[in-house]
Amino acid sequence: MATGFFDGLEPVRFVGPDAKDPYGYRFYDKDRVVLGKRMEDHLRLAICYWHSFCWPGGDPFGGDTFQRKWMAAGDPMEQARLKADVAFEMFQLLDMPFFTFHDRDIAPEGATLAESNANVNAIADIFEKKMAETGVKLLWGTANLFSNRRFMSGAATNPDPEIFAYSAAQVKNAMDVTKRLGGANYVLWGGREGYETLLNTDLKRELDQLGRFLSMVVEYKHKTGFKGTILIEPKPQEPTKHQYDYDVATVFGFLKAYGLENEVKVNIEQGHAILAGHSFEHELALANALGIFGSVDMNRNDYQSGWDTDQFAMNVPELALAYYEILKGGGFTTGGTNFDSKIRRQSIDAADLIQGHIGSADAIARGLLAAAAMIEDGRLGGFVEDRYAGWSKPENAAILKGDVSLEALADRVHATDLEPQPKSGRQEYLESLVNLFV
Amino acid sequence: MATGFFDGLEPVRFVGPDAKDPYGYRFYDKDRVVLGKRMEDHLRLAICYWHSFCWPGGDPFGGDTFQRKWMAAGDPMEQARLKADVAFEMFQLLDMPFFTFHDRDIAPEGATLAESNANVNAIADIFEKKMAETGVKLLWGTANLFSNRRFMSGAATNPDPEIFAYSAAQVKNAMDVTKRLGGANYVLWGGREGYETLLNTDLKRELDQLGRFLSMVVEYKHKTGFKGTILIEPKPQEPTKHQYDYDVATVFGFLKAYGLENEVKVNIEQGHAILAGHSFEHELALANALGIFGSVDMNRNDYQSGWDTDQFAMNVPELALAYYEILKGGGFTTGGTNFDSKIRRQSIDAADLIQGHIGSADAIARGLLAAAAMIEDGRLGGFVEDRYAGWSKPENAAILKGDVSLEALADRVHATDLEPQPKSGRQEYLESLVNLFV
Amino acid sequence: MATGFFDGLEPVRFVGPDAKDPYGYRFYDKDRVVLGKRMEDHLRLAICYWHSFCWPGGDPFGGDTFQRKWMAAGDPMEQARLKADVAFEMFQLLDMPFFTFHDRDIAPEGATLAESNANVNAIADIFEKKMAETGVKLLWGTANLFSNRRFMSGAATNPDPEIFAYSAAQVKNAMDVTKRLGGANYVLWGGREGYETLLNTDLKRELDQLGRFLSMVVEYKHKTGFKGTILIEPKPQEPTKHQYDYDVATVFGFLKAYGLENEVKVNIEQGHAILAGHSFEHELALANALGIFGSVDMNRNDYQSGWDTDQFAMNVPELALAYYEILKGGGFTTGGTNFDSKIRRQSIDAADLIQGHIGSADAIARGLLAAAAMIEDGRLGGFVEDRYAGWSKPENAAILKGDVSLEALADRVHATDLEPQPKSGRQEYLESLVNLFV
Amino acid sequence: MATGFFDGLEPVRFVGPDAKDPYGYRFYDKDRVVLGKRMEDHLRLAICYWHSFCWPGGDPFGGDTFQRKWMAAGDPMEQARLKADVAFEMFQLLDMPFFTFHDRDIAPEGATLAESNANVNAIADIFEKKMAETGVKLLWGTANLFSNRRFMSGAATNPDPEIFAYSAAQVKNAMDVTKRLGGANYVLWGGREGYETLLNTDLKRELDQLGRFLSMVVEYKHKTGFKGTILIEPKPQEPTKHQYDYDVATVFGFLKAYGLENEVKVNIEQGHAILAGHSFEHELALANALGIFGSVDMNRNDYQSGWDTDQFAMNVPELALAYYEILKGGGFTTGGTNFDSKIRRQSIDAADLIQGHIGSADAIARGLLAAAAMIEDGRLGGFVEDRYAGWSKPENAAILKGDVSLEALADRVHATDLEPQPKSGRQEYLESLVNLFV
């Protein structure tokens, strides 16, 4: 291709399950119809800009390993254009339908916010043209309110209202760009919206600031006619010691407190779920139960590491359970599956970047197929329905309707000296059943 | 004393900070006035029945080590009466103002719920008399909805509505007893209100069941004129893999979803905070910020153990931070400091049981004194106020009032090319300041 | 069958991968030859006595849920015989080649150790007969030195030498029984060999006690001519706060310190690896690297629970990585795959007990098949060999032989201004490669 | 001072416990005699170069916040000299006796290793002069074998022997510099000596490489006559997924395997202990028990964060337990207390850097004083001695000497139907006792 970065790498296409080499999709077959919908439309896979094109391979103990040419010294806008070229080459090489980005991923920061915005908008012009040419779409955009030192004590939750204002101005531009590019969603991840120590923090005040900020975003969305979904991405900590958007349940309470539960949904990340002490499927199931499921940042956290490892998801049984929850909830609407995944810092070749996406897309596709098979089989779902069948009886349905008091239930129990007997939860059977499909 | 269990142990009284032996209160001086209130009235210390008198010293890998005489074979009600005698002897030995219990702690389960209730009520008669004699009060009562096998798949969240009904009937009696004994609060801890596997669970349905159950409890409280506070005690897991009342933020969202946020507060446990990935002071501060702080289950979780270790709280600097949050929120109203703490299973002597309470009461008292000193000093609080001072300016206060839009803020930023500069958070200074007082 | 416990359950046999019901082995095909050996001989599956027949379904917050008839009141030896009958019925129902037990699992404790030993020996007589009849073999025996209160402060590491002596006497009998029954190994798990607090512990002394105890066991093994392997089972904690046999690396250092590294090997448990902060495959690989790999306690720890959950292993990709390490090390000799797995406490039916073993045996078989395929394919192993190929050059091989000094290497570097270039570690490629086989 | 960096900050000196401001030592009184030795000589406090002068305040999600002038663009050696000036100003401002550094902390990397070494040596010339002028001494030096991309797959454990050679050459120079500056120790921290995935790793081979490397270091030490101690610093993970020097027990096993247990000791870090699942005092006690205790990297890990937070140690009771173990083992010989602690990235002022060291030095001093008081009091130590007193009886001492067999002990037990009774471990008493002194 034109940039030469992927020289020697063939376009990645469906090769079927019998292929003996992992370069090629063995299961990700975009046109295959699953539960009445094309696989591509089910999964809505997106490549993220930050991990793939912006992260240089550094970690807290070591510098860059990747040394991409667009990260070298040079005119920053020139480099941003080269990066955009490489990005779209990769989208096409992998035949992926979507991408995602932060404003600062795509263009350099200028001397003022106006200059920074102009940089972002200039690259967005290029994106607009490339998207039209290639058919690649934007799953979501977002603003980076965490890297610059001005955000060190928060963006919306900063003790300094000037930084709140600055953040608002930056988000406005990111939302404008996202709308212009037809983004299906707009995401807020509050990496600095938390605290390092309670000793210098007024929790109540910061929550109110965050609530107000989010309300302003929602108001602006409606004013501009942006049709996408506003998404919050929960994470318990890192970089801050404690982040306000800890997990799905915390975000739900926050939305309820500020009357935003019908306006905002969640973008759930596997790695963030793990760091918060939950399984990924828990967070998905809970978001569905609470009516705020939106989208997925797909990756895998190393179970032995206490930080966000953002590895490519590769464990098919785990992915099957995740898509089972997603499909049970009706699947994605505006959301999708964003590869919030990065190659390891020792994986320094362009081929590694491609292979990570292939391997994970395939594992995801297998997860989806297994989940669909579990739904079609029906035994899992049927077991659950049977388990709660007693609640359909009129006298029990009345309890949930609020027609029965504590005393009335007590009377019912004592009238017959009721002694209910436990029934097996059959977990091992259900786990064995799942293994029929993965 | 009459039971002989504490033979050889002297009544524990204030001996002053210079005492050279840890048997005696060096800092817990109940009549000492701190910030205008007696220390006893600040702390409202309570001894719990379950750890002190019911737990036999067993763990998942080993049987009983304590071999208390009231746990030996014999007539269960006779043993329950002996246990009550020992309990009140201990309350007086330690000169503690409150106690707490589960229904099943104080009396044996009968063949039917009616019989079980009768057993509970019979012991409550004894309590009533002993409380009048000794002046010891009830901080709170609760129902054990987790030990019996009927609750293995939940109480209020059980798939079987009969178990929901049974639970309601049991709670009704526990609430009646708590009211009769003048309990200052009634607590619900949902040890089985969660799931072991999502594969057999309907999350939405179980949350609705739990919401309905709690509403029934609140309705019954008002109907009976019980003046105490209804408290939920968050815990993330153990014994279940995932408990619905995960942490303070989760409980808040749950209360909001069912319209109970003005009716129910939280009873926060140090160990549960740790298991949920939070510091104790975080949970306290958050509950205050959300307006749902109620009471405290005081203990300490071993930082290297992944289960609920319920050790006696002994680390003064940590306790100082906890009471600093409690005092900043106005202190306890109906709530108090319940020793949800157990001696180690190798601490098999009666003296160990007493020493655990002495040592922890003293550490708690030191924590309170340090917290009060921090408040009186004022530098910590003043630092925080100064940090957010910018929000008092009219143009910034207007933001939080909702009078300013995203676009208006963007205009403000661009008008002056605003570039706000970060200010030091001074964490090390604040931590050093705290160390002046502990 | 005679006891009636498994009434209604059919013998479990190989039914092939296309079976639509999880009752039956779809992949565990004992006679299938894998890498030149029968699958049964590769895996050497064993059913454990404690989880399957002794655990009543209790946990720290709740009582028994299983209510097996052999756990009911009655003559303890009568019940032990019934339990033995049920156990052998299950071994045959599942067609498993091995079993494992603690002395206290099989027979009740008596008034003296002599009586306890007599009880054990009486049941061993029964075992002997049943083993001859059924062909079921003993993978290993062990002594329970943790449940009785006398061991609360340790067995071999107890501050009281009388408890050390008692433990020695009990182990002697357990070794005798194991030898008599043709056990392939003898295991020591030191659940109480650790400390609850350093404040009352002399670490050095306790390590010496443990070293001496283990030496006595080895000496006795040789004296009696027992041909099995002595195995230590590492675990970091639980029930104790800190256990001396923390993990494989710790055990290795301990064995080296007491000169036992050629006499004792490790029995590695998945759940214990996880609790110690390692992956299962790490512990297996390390044991092979250190030359002390012995056997496996197979289960799965819930990744979100901080205690030993001992679930049935069901995740095939994880099992594939485990058996890949085992096969690379040459596979089992005297060791095997012991199901140290328990059904959930809500799985109260006999069918659950069977289904757990079926589902896990099948997942294990799939893991073995995938591992074998990875080895036969050769690309994974070849990649690793190539990666270290530079060390075969004579000048580099000389380094490891000890023939080159720090200064000589420095000279070599400076002579050519050596600047070695990093090469990709290709993790994503390797993970994708693994996914070809699982 | 000359550089102006600390303008406005007064020299920090002992002001006594009644001081009301945290700027000044309230407890760190260097000349105070504790257990017969000056406090300065007990603690041997050292300021580290990397956190204080090299870390720019970045984290994985955000850039530099500190913007120190010596980190700005400019001639790197000029900046290195400015940094050295600031460093020694700080050593004197704080009146600290020692410092520590990595080679790359003090001087920039050149185009070749020879050039890099020359840079290091040039700064060492400056150090030599400044040390003579100020009396500040070097606690230890070390080589940075982790930041440059060449080390991404390890230094001594790299699959590429050229990187092993390069590392050897770099370490040689770092050892030479350390010797020249009179360093009391030389440290090796293997941040990249581990693996990211087992799939590309030959564990056995890498351990052998590491063993050989360490042996070369020891040989070179003896050849050059360096009198300092060679120290390994254990850490379980981060940046690598799994580091070979996991914890003290693992390092001990490694040293035994390569015959280095009498040549190399450990430098124990609080944060690394926590990440490995241990308490700090455990690692200290174990190192003493195994005879390999060397030195301490003092800091504090946030208990809720799963990465290395390197905060300033401020919790006095925890520090008291740490120094209690250190003093029981005889205290430091060549080792000392290195502040491996960094101010938070929001603490951007020079005053924060000073305050962090003051606050922590004071907390450490209080920890030492408490530990000394515990030792002088004698009750803690006496309790432990009494607990094991039974082992002094001749028949029990004989067991540890190896004069008694398993059978002989069994005979002893059966002869008297021995039934040893458990004794209380009295943990709550001991914890209360500790609280008399902190």
TrEMBL record, chains A, B, C, D:
State the top-level EC class.
Answer: isomerase
The residues covered by the Xylose isomerase-like TIM barrel domain are 127-282
Catalytic activity reported:
alpha-D-xylose = alpha-D-xylulofuranose
Alphabetical list of Gene3D superfamilies matching this protein = Divalent-metal-dependent TIM barrel enzymes
Q: What is its EC number?
A: 5.3.1.5
Spell out the family assignment given in the record's similarity comment: Belongs to the xylose isomerase family.
Under which name does UniProt file this protein? Xylose isomerase
Q: Which organism is it from?
A: Pannonibacter phragmitetus
What does the record give as the organism's lineage? Bacteria, Pseudomonadati, Pseudomonadota, Alphaproteobacteria, Hyphomicrobiales
What is this protein's gene name? xylA
